[in-house]
Amino acid sequence: MKNKLVLLFLGCAVLGYAQKKPAKNTVKIKPKSEFVAELMSKMTLDEKLGQLNLPTSGDITTGQANSSNVAKNIAEGKVGGLFNIKSVQKIKEVQKIAVEKSRLKIPLLFGMDVIHGYETTFPIPLGLSCTWDMGLIERSAQIAAKEASADGINWTFSPMVDISRDPRWGRVSEGSGEDPYLGSQIAKAMVNGYQQHDLTKNNSILACVKHFALYGAPEGGRDYNTVDMSHIRMFNDYFPPYKAAVDAGVGSVMASFNEVDGIPATGNKWLMTDVLRKQWGFKGFVVTDFTGIPEMIPHGMGDLQQVSALALNAGVEMDMVGEGFLGTLKKSLDEGKVKIETIDNAVKLILEAKYDLGLFQDPYKYCDEKRAKTEIFTTDSRKEARDIAAQSLVLLKNQNQLLPLKKSGTIGLIGPLADAKENMPGTWSVATKMENAVSLLRGIKEVAGTGTKVLYAKGSNLDYDETFETNATMFGKTLHRDARTKEELLAEALKVAEQSDVIVAALGESAEMSGESSSRTNLEIPQAQKDLLNALLKTGKPVVLVLFDGRPLVITDEEKTVPAILNAWFAGTEAGYAIADVLFGDVNPSGKLTSTFPRSVGQLPIYYAHKNTGRPLSNTEGKFEKFRSNYIDERNEPLFPFGFGLSYTTFDYSNLKISSDKMNPSGKLKVTVDVTNTGNFDGKETVQLYIRDLVGSVTRPVRELKGFQKIALKKGEKQTVNFDITVEDLKFYNSDLQFVAEPGQFDVFVGGNSNADKKVSFELTK
Fold it and tell me: Which residues form the Fibronectin type III-like domain (predicted)?
């Protein structure tokens, strides 16, 4: 029995670990500050710098960990964590090297981009945000953490909370849209889902909010490009979701690639120290993005030694892949360019994170092979993913109640995204097993049942340009390009259409047309698919467009010509079932847009909470007026506004009331509105409250989201919805960057989207 005891050196090394199952025994260790201080007192400078190093795992395979190059570095104490290594078997092998072969036996962090699920994949974050349901969003992160932790992962590089108002930027797909208030609620929900307020649990993982900061506002919508904005816009519009994640206790923060005030974020001391730590009180550690430190060299910030010192002195603790810390900080220390106190503080923060995760008590905490076999891609998790995905879909148009479809007759399913299971999980689904994803074709066939005939034709390729399609279907997300001519593909589609009662056209973007380094200047559906759609419309058969996208697209033509449009985003591994559930009315769509859909690319950036000008357009018909703020060739307003989304039923808003027309700074107002389901289906509605500050010391947006509630109403049911307004809802950062609420007049709007026209008013007194 003695040979089976778990022995720990410095409370962290598991010796004599030979059994296949991880040891369940843990040893009680000293309080965090004392434990970390004692451990650091035994560390050499090289070992300290090793804790700041986060390499990728390379090509480690099960059974080969000991012979890999990274294993040598781990044994020498030169690695603090690894990322992009997956599975309990591989992680256990590597962790064993750290806790048995390195001198101080310090366990590793294992990180992965668990962005919107693990093997059970949920809608892309932009789609997930359209549920407007914080409980569902938190639950998706909780399931992701459960699965990832069961497979050995203890750290996720999520949530991404970058506000973006320009859908040319491909990574809009990874965020929660354009609004700081909604984005803040989602940031909090995601952090709570991953970390569960208790990192000692074996099914919670360390979250990492990213990308700090302003990454979603690059010039021209081009990824990694320059960002330049005023501090007042930073604090009011772009910073709130990051701060919300910090307030929720997020354990780590990732630096962004872009510059802020002319200094790359990775080396920006004002950002990482003054704002993040001193103003917001962040207590965790900061990690760079992939090669973020050496990328400051082409930015023009110096050589590798200079930029590494710049990053450390700015407040960055961990170097992802760049190895600038590992290779240059010793020299910088000798030359007086960095201080040992700065290095020690960085090491302390990383060791504290490992302590909080319980890795010093049990380095194999996340290496339970039983969990790996029983808690990943389970029937229950898939069911929840299907339910959540269905609530992320946004019904944009439903002329003459074409939807829901009947489970009878013949349906013609046509389009390059119709039988494309590899694309359903969307971008950044690195742990997804694509073979497990459900295509729309499979979903429709199974949900429709045997009483419905389903015919299928591809109709077209993604695009006429084969090179473009290759670039848009990377990472195993092939659309199996068809070698037939466009005429042959179209002929087959028209034959299917001729035999069908209704056509479902599955069109739009492929999964990798959005995401990192997938910026676009043309946001329309590719021409090959537009030509297919127009040919289908000419048949005279009713057409439902199921639109796949990772960003708001320009669908002005389609909105005019197609009778029904369901925006499906990329809904995850259960996408086919979820979309079919909505198409057939088993689930009434309730998604609401969190990002404005433009009429044309020329309107970008476009968002609802814009400022007024001194020469606003005076008419509401979109008519051009000379010497007014408008376009000569386009209307000002978007195609679909923020917060928009239809249902198979209808909702009526009435009896909007406010408890008083005056409020003092310590008071509270109650706003009530009656919402009635006036249609023929049970349904869910997201009731939204917006506030406009009419006069301020600085110009204020035309309206700002300050509250929302998603309610379920039976057919014919009425519910009174209540909102509370306090002075906190009225605060903003003024020109001195003071967070204040200024006395004056305010308008309150309540409705089903950002164009809500039910209004009450009040005055904030001194």
Answer: 685-754
- Please report the sign of the dihedral spanned by the C-alpha atoms of residue 11, residue 17, residue 21, residue 24: negative
Residue 26 is predicted with a pLDDT of 59
- Tell me 478's DSSP state: -
Given this model, what pLDDT does residue 66 score? 61
Pick the CATH number of 649-764 from 1.10.1240.10, 2.170.150.70, 2.60.40.10, 1.10.760.10: 2.60.40.10
* Contact between 447 and 581 (Cβ < 8 Å): yes
Q: Provide the residue ranges of all domains of the chain, joining segments of one domain with +.
A: 381-601, 649-764
Q: Does an H or E element contain 713, and which? A: strand 704-713
Report which secondary-structure segment, H or E, holds 747. strand 744-751
First to last CA, the chain: 74
Question: Checking DSSP bridges between strand 409-414 and strand 452-457, what pairing results, if any?
Answer: parallel
* Close Cβ partners of 710 (under 8 Å, ≥ 6 residues apart): 131, 132, 133, 590, 684, 685, 686, 687
Does the domain at 381-601 match CATH 3.40.50.1700? Answer given as yes
Distances (CA, A) of 299 to 74, 162, 225, 256, 305: 31, 21, 11, 13, 14
422 DSSP assignment = G
Taking the C-alpha atoms of residue 151 and residue 143, their distance in angstroms, rounded to an integer, is: 13
pLDDT at 70: 86
| DSSP string over 486-530 | HHHHHHHHHHHHHT-SEEEEEEE--GGGSSTT---S--SPPHHHH
Average pLDDT per run of 10 along the chain, which is 766 residues long?
Answer: 33 34 61 98 98 83 61 94 93 96 97 98 98 98 98 98 98 98 98 97 98 98 98 98 98 98 98 98 98 98 98 98 97 98 98 98 96 97 98 98 98 98 97 96 98 98 97 95 98 98 98 97 98 98 98 98 98 98 98 98 98 94 95 97 98 98 97 98 98 98 98 98 98 98 98 98 97
Q: Which residues pair with 663 in a beta bridge?
A: 764
Query: What is the Cα–Cα distance from 254 to 74, expressed in whole angstroms?
Result: 23
Phi and psi at residue 229, to the nearest 5°: -150, 165
Cis preceding-peptide flag for 743 (omega within 30 of 0)? no
pLDDT of residue 65: 56
Residue with tokens 């009434």, as numbered in its chain: 588
701: left (phi over 0), alpha (psi -120 to 50) or beta: beta
pLDDT at 620: 86
pLDDT at residue 5, as a whole number: 32
Give the three-state DSSP class for 286: strand
